[in-house]
Design brief:
The chain has helices at 51-62, 65-75, 107-124, 128-138, 149-156, 236-246, 248-251, 254-273, 280-293, 317-323, 325-339; strands spanning 5-15, 22-28, 33-35, 41-44, 81-87, 96-100, 157-159, 167-169, 174-176, 187-197, 203-214, 217-224, 300-304, 347-353, 357-360, 363-370. By secondary structure, it is an alpha+beta fold. A hairpin with a 5-residue loop joins strand 3 and strand 4 (41-44). The longest helix has 20 residues, at 254-273. The chain is globular and about 75 Å long. The relative contact order is 0.19. The model has no long low-confidence stretch (mean pLDDT 87).
Length: 371
Amino acid sequence: MRGPVETSYEITIRPLTPLHVGSGDEALLGLDALYRRDGRLCIVDYEALPGDLASRLASKALQGLEALERELEALADNLPCRIITVAKARLPRGSTIRLPATDVVPGSTVKGYIRTAILYSLARHRSPVELRDMLAMGVNLRKVNQASMALEGMFFRAPRPERQGGFVDAFQQLLVSDPLSPPGGFEFGLDEIGVYKLPSLEKVASVNAIILRSGELRYHLSIMRPPALEARGFPREYYSRIMGVLSLLEQVDLLASLREFGCFNIKVEVEKVKNVRGLEAYAALLEEYRSRYCAENSRCVAARLGFMTGHHSKTILDLVKIVDPEFYKRVTSHLSRLYGRIWDDMTLKLVESLGAGLVGVGWCELCLREA
C-alpha cells in the first residue's frame, strides 16, 4: 500500500541580510534586557532564576523600581539569559526591543511564504485578461483583513457539499515542521531597523530588534497524498473540483515557483534602489543574488522572510501593478485611507550590514532537496 506522503523535502534557510521574525513580545531595557560588562546584551530568562536570586530581586522590587533596576544592573553578569547578543550601540534605559520568535523562523512563516510564491506563479501564468477578471471578482476592499480571500479561493479552495459545509484547501496537504534542531549556534544582534524615504534616504522611523545575522535552520516539508474519496459519495460537481484542489501541490514545481517569486522580488527591489546614492553596495548585492539564485539549475533560491519586508514578499500586489495598473491604484488609494498615510513605494526598510552598509531586511537563501 502507498503511504500518505507523496513527496518529502528538506529545506535549509540561511540569512543573507539581517532577519527578524517577531514573537510579539518586547523587552524593556533595564528590566528585561541588561547590558553586561563586556558590552553584550542579555535578555533575562526570569523563569530560570535560581530561588535565592528570585528572592533577592523580589525584596528589591518592594523598595521601588529604581532599587530593582540598580540591583539588576549589578547582577547582569550572573543572571540566566534567553539570548545573549552583541549590541552595536548602547540604547538608553527604558528603550523597547522587539524579541525574536522562539523558533527564530517558525515553520508557519515558511509555509506562508511558500503559499504566496505559488499564488504568484499560478497567477503570473494566467493571461492578463483572465487575471484582471479574477482580480475584479476576487478582491473585496471592504474586507479589511480578508480582501483577497476570494482570489486565493479561486486558486486554492473548493467548496464541500452543502451538507458538510466549508471548504477544502490545497495547503492542508502541505506540512512544514518547525526547525528540526533546537535553535542554537546562531549569531544574533541588537539592531535598529530604519524606515528611509527615497531618494533622500532620510530616516523617518525606526524600531530596535534582536535580529538573526547568521546561522542555519532546517525543516522537513511533506506534500500529502489526497485522501481516497469515493466518487459515489459526492455530487459530481463537487468531487472533481475537490480532488483537483487536493492534488494541486503534486502538480506544482515547488522549486521553480520559489525561484520565480524570489527573482521577481529581487527585480522589484533593484528598480527601487539602483539610482539611490548611498545604496550602491545594496544594489550590487541584489545583482549578486540575481546571478547566484536565478539560474534554473540552482537548488537554492533567494527568499525574503519576516518583519519589515513589506508587501512585496507577502502579497502579489507588485504583479497586480503590472497586470492592472488602474486596479492597483484603487488598492493603494484604499490602503492610504485605511492607514491614514500615503501608501506608495517611496520608503525602504533598511538595516546596517557588516561590510555592505544599509541593506534590505530579511533576504535569505532557501535550499530545497528531496528527502
